[in-house]
Amino acid sequence: MALFLVQHGKNLKKDVDPEQPLSDEGIAEVKRIAQTAANYNVQVGEIRHSGKKRALQTAEIFADHLSVAGGVHEMTGIKALDDVVPVAEAMESSRNIMLVGHLPFMERLTSYLTAGSQETTVMKFQNGGIVCLDQMDDSGDWAIKWTLMPNIG
Known about the structure:
Layout: E1 2-7, H1 24-39, E2 46-49, H2 53-65, E3 72-74, H3 84-90, E4 97-101, H4 105-115, E5 130-135, E6 142-148
Parallel strand pairs: 1-4, 2-3, 2-4
Antiparallel strand pairs: 1-5, 5-6
């Protein structure tokens, strides 16, 4: 099973739009990453998002580029300051799932799954980037398999 963790794309500031939708730059970056993932034939079974507009928009862009048989759905418990433990313990091993959410949640979930501690930062996310975690068949442990980020600098 693969777990694809995505921080939403770059968004507008709250004083520009209170819903903080994706900015033009954010849309372009997410489309570029989604197309690159499609070119690599990344298979996603379902996309779940936090319900915030910028996360929904990011999820929809990925869904437009990838074959997502299970569709796009809102999920509770993946907002910025939510506890990662319930989400980590509920991860299904039957299909590849993409979660689209916010920091610090995504970084803390990655740390918890791979290092056993939310406090140890093991991956620095970028808006619109993907971190692919893979669950090992023999041990059930999680490891970072690959990442795809908008910028390398």
